[in-house]
Design brief:
Layout (H helix, E strand, L loop, with lengths): L1 H6 L5 H10 L4 H16 L7 H14 L5 H24 L5 H20 L5 H20 L8 H5 L5 H29 L5 H22 L5 H21 L3 H4 L7 H19 L9
Helix pairs in contact: 2-3, 5-9, 6-7, 6-9, 7-9, 7-10, 7-11, 9-10, 9-13, 10-11, 10-13
């Protein structure tokens, strides 16, 4: 009893009267309500038993809708976002000239041919050079519109510039994934050993150069950023070969490391691109 009395915020009749007066109660209404409010401080609510709780839940369950409208709305919104991204990517395909598709396929075929012919003792080296070359070409083609000062036009379109960038990355990386699968089939059909390791040696540096190039486009032009990113990778390959650290740097356990770094770079670049969008508008 003392616990309930101590937790009651208005223990004195004067305090209760002040509260009722603030609520607009007349003196007559205050006289009628004060005894009831004082009794309320002494009342102890009954504790429900487990059976009471089950009965209450059973009654409430019949009143709940079979499908949550909130969850249904969230599900439909996610589907619409995915559909919008795919539709935007389909529309952006027209920006990629036929030469891009053909040159990328030829570079992949050339890398597979060199590996299968065993002209170079280190088969993975050719793939580490040719794979990032596709990232260089893809970045230049996908984001060449930034140099044309068309950001104002993109801002008035329904998809945001960030959505356009993601859609173009979906096209480029999707095509590169398809080429990597084709490369794997060619290597497997040609009887080359370690197909998975060779495919990763081709695709993981591709992701690394793509992420680095997109990061550099925040400060440099698209052509310069892509060239610097690809040049850094070629310099890294040259230094690792000359210093005889190639076996350590390209150990099997580290094959996926360049790809993970590249994906992290792509994510950071997209977030920074969205945050700095207003700074990319041309100043007149």
């Amino acid at each position: 009893m003392s616990h309930h009395q101590s937790s009651w915020p208005f223990g004195q009749p004067e305090q209760l009267a002040d509260v009722l007066r603030e609520q607009g109660a007349s003196p007559e209404e205050q006289a009628d309500l004060l005894p009831a409010l004082r009794r309320l401080s002494e009342w102890q609510a009954p504790q429900p038993s487990p059976a009471d709780t089950r009965r209450l839940l059973a009654v409430l369950a019949t009143e709940l809708p079979a499908h949550s409208p909130v969850r249904q709305a969230i599900h439909e919104h996610r589907q619409q976002r995915i559909a919008l991204l795919l539709e935007t990517a389909r529309a952006q395909v027209s920006l990629f000239v036929p030469g891009f598709w053909l040159v990328s396929a030829l570079v992949t075929l050339l890398g597979a041919a060199v590996v299968l012919s065993r002209v170079i003792p280190d088969q993975a080296m050719m793939l580490r050079i040719s794979g990032p070359l596709l990232a260089y070409l893809g970045t230049i083609v996908a984001f060449r519109g930034r140099g044309a000062r068309v950001l104002e036009l993109e801002l008035v379109c329904l998809p945001s510039p960030l959505q356009l960038a993601i859609a173009r990355l979906v096209i480029v990386l999707g095509y590169d994934v398809g080429l990597s699968l084709a490369l794997s089939l060619l290597l497997w059909a040609g009887g080359s050993g370690q197909v998975l390791a060779l495919t990763l040696a081709w695709f993981m540096p591709l992701l690394l150069v793509a992420g680095l190039a997109l990061l550099l486009t925040l400060r440099l032009s698209v052509q310069a950023a892509s060239s610097v990113a690809y040049g850094i990778w070629l310099a890294f390959l040259a230094i690792s070969t000359v210093s005889h650290l190639q076996g350590l740097l390209f150990a099997p356990v580290l094959l996926v490391l360049p790809g993970c770094i590249g994906l992290a770079g792509l994510s950071i670049a997209l977030l920074r691109m969205h945050a700095n969008m207003h700074r990319q508008l041309p100043h007149i």
